[in-house]
Amino acid sequence: MNANKRLLKLMTWKLALVLLLSASACDAAKFTSFRDIPGVTEDEIRAVEAFQAQGVSFVYGAPPSTETFSDVNGEIRGFTVLLCEWLTELFGIPFEPGLYEWSDMLAGLHTGEIDFTGELTATDERRKTYIMTDAIAGRLTKYIRIAGSPPLSQIAAWRRPRYGFLTGTTTIDNVTALIDYEYETFLLGGYSEAYYMLKFAAIDAFIDEGTAEAAFDFYGDVVAEDFFPLIYEPVSLTTQNPANAPIISVVQKALENNAIRYLTELYNLGMQEYTKHKLFTSLTEEELAYIYNNPVARFAAEYDNYPLSFYSARDGQWQGVCFDVLGEVEALTGLTFELANNERTAWPDLLRMLESGEVSMVSELIRTPEREGLFLWPAIPLLTDNHALLSKAEYPNISINEVWHVNIGLVEDTAHTELFLRWFPNHLSTVSYRSFGHAFAALQRGEVDMVMASQVQLLVLTHYQELVGYKANIVFDYPFESTFGFYKGDAVLCSIVDKALRLIDTRGIARYWTGRTYDYREKVAQSRLPWLIGTIVLLLCVLILSLVFFQWRRRTERLVMESNIRERTLTADNAMLDNLYRMESNLLANISHEISTPLTIMSGYAQQTRKEIENGEVNEETANNLRTIQSEAHRLAELANQILSASRNLQTGIAIAPVKPTEILERAANLCEPVLTKNGNRLEKSAEPDCPAVAANLDIILQVFLNLCINAGRHTKNGVVSITAKRAGGHAKHAKYAEFTVEDNGGGIAPELLPRVFERGFSGDGRSGLGLAICKDVIVQHGGTIDIFNEKGKGARVVFTLPAAG
Question: What percentage of the chain reaches a pLDDT higher than 70?
Answer without folding.
Answer: 85
